[in-house]
Specification:
Oligomer: single chain
CATH class of the largest domain: Mainly Alpha
Distance between the termini: 22 Å
Largest sheet: none
Number of domains: 2
Helix content: 55-70%
Strand content: under 5%
Number of helices: 10
Radius of gyration: 17 Å
Length: about 200
C-alpha cells in the first residue's frame, strides 16, 4: 500500500480533476476498505457495494479533507460509517436472507458452510469457526463491534481506532474489554481459541 505521504498527495490531486490520482488511491486502498466492509456485512456483493459508495464519497469530498488525521484514518471512518448505515438499512428492509440461510432460526445451528464468509485477515481453523465468531460479533452493541473489528481483526492500534471512531483511547480500550467479555459470555471457553 502507498505511504501516508503518497495518499495525502493523491487526495489533494483529486479535486483538481486528476483521474490518475483517484485511480492510484483506489488501487492502493481498495482491498483494505473492502475487507473492513466484508467484516460488517459478510457478503462479497454487499461489501463491494459499500466500497463503491466509499470511493464515490471520497471523489466528492476529497477537497474537504483537512489533514487533521491520516488519509487511512479518514478512509476507515468513511467505510465504518457506510457499513453501519448499510446494516441499519438492511435491518429496516428485513433483508437478511444471507444470514437466515446460514443458520437455522429456531436452533441457531449452522445450516451450511457460508460462501465468501471468512475475512482474509482472520486466521481461523475453518469457515465454521469464523461463522460462529462473526455471528457472535454481530450481537455486540455497534460501538463494541466497531472497536473489536478495528483493533482485533484489522489490527489497528487503539490510537488509530479512537481517531476513526471519534472517541478517546480509553473509550476504545473499554469498548474492547466489554466486547471481549460479551464474546466470552456468548461463546464460553471456545472463544479463547477462536480469537483472530
Amino acid at each position: 500500500m502507498a505511504h501516508s505521504y503518497d495518499l495525502s498527495r493523491l487526495i489533494k490531486a483529486i479535486p483538481e480533476g486528476n483521474e490518475a490520482a483517484f485511480r492510484e488511491l483506489y488501487e492502493a486502498t481498495q482491498s483494505r476498505l473492502f475487507n473492513t466492509a466484508l467484516i460488517y456485512v459478510r457478503s462479497r456483493e454487499d461489501a463491494e457495494e459499500i466500497t463503491q459508495d466509499v470511493f464515490i464519497e471520497v471523489y466528492r469530498s476529497a477537497g474537504a479533507f483537512k489533514e487533521e488525521s491520516s488519509v487511512m484514518t479518514w478512509l476507515y471512518r468513511i467505510v465504518v460509517n457506510k457499513s453501519l448505515d448499510f446494516i441499519k438499512h438492511k435491518k429496516r428492509q428485513k433483508r437478511f436472507s444471507f444470514l437466515t440461510s446460514l443458520f437455522d432460526t429456531s436452533t441457531g445451528e449452522l445450516v451450511r458452510e457460508p460462501v465468501d464468509f471468512v475475512h482474509p485477515g482472520v486466521m481461523l481453523e475453518n469457515k465454521e469457526n469464523a461463522a460462529i465468531l462473526f455471528r457472535a460479533v454481530d450481537k455486540l452493541a455497534p460501538k463494541q463491534k466497531t472497536a473489536y473489528i478495528l483493533t482485533r481483526v484489522e489490527g489497528l492500534s487503539n490510537i488509530e481506532s479512537a481517531e476513526i471512531m471519534g472517541t478517546s483511547v480509553g473509550a476504545v480500550e473499554s469498548l474492547g474489554r466489554r466486547a471481549n467479555e460479551n464474546l466470552k459470555k456468548q461463546l464460553g471457553g471456545w472463544y479463547k481459541s477462536a480469537k483472530p
